[in-house]
């Protein structure tokens, strides 16, 4: 093979490589449909006490921690092997700026093309809608920065 051939092979390999890095780095979580975005968390903030957090925290630990981490920073034990990384909920403003209905939608239905599977009613994990809202209240209480 001549030098030109080798250079063009190297160039294609580099392009392939940058395309895959770009695809992962460039991933944008899809935006929930309007009816989800308009949803309000039915939990009264006054009800989010120690017992509430303990119970929602148990569910988080069982189903979410391995990816999103104990502290919600996306550094769970399974995160390393995942290409599109689990969301870091502790990023400043994240929990404030994201509509609860957005979080609800992703937890219930998953994020297509990522390791974030659907957890809602009828799935293998079968988390109820009430439990999803409880998880969201837990995340606000523990991870918001
Ligand atoms: C197998 C790993 C894994 C597990 C387990 C997991 N997640 Fe995720 N999660 C992800 C990944 C990866 C993303 C990023 C998805 C994206 O960027 O589209 C994500 C994204 C999210 C988001 C971001 C939604 C948004 O719009 O910003 C929320 C909320 C979320 N997960 C909540 C949970 C909750 C609650 C649980 C437990 C019931 C859970 N996740 C379990 C991997 C996981």
Helix and strand layout, with pairings?
Elements: H1 3-25, H2 34-37, H3 50-63, H4 65-68, H5 94-97, H6 100-109, H7 129-143
The structure holds heme C (HEC).
CATH class of the largest domain: Mainly Alpha
Beta-strand percentage? Answer: under 5%
Average pLDDT taken over every residue: 91
Number of strands: 0
What is the CATH superfamily of the largest domain? Cytochrome c-like domain
User: What is the distance, rounded to the nearest whole angstrom, between the alpha carbons of the first and last residues?
Assistant: 57 Å
General description of the model:
With 145 residues, the protein is mostly helical. It has two domains: 1-28; 31-143, Cytochrome Bc1 Complex, Chain D, domain 2 (Orthogonal Bundle), CATH 1.10.760.10. It has seven helices and no strands. Helix 6 packs across helix 7 (129-143). The longest helix has 23 residues, at 3-25. The protein is elongated, with a radius of gyration of 19 Å. It starts with a helix and ends with a helix. It binds heme C. Heme C (HEC) binds at residues 27, 29, 63-64, 66-68, 78, 82, 84, 86-87, 98, 102-103, 106-107, 111, 114-116, 119, 127, 135.
Task: For this entry, give a set of tags.
mainly alpha, Cytochrome Bc1 Complex, Chain D, domain 2, binds heme C
In short:
The protein has helices at 3-25, 34-37, 50-63, 65-68, 94-97, 100-109, 129-143.
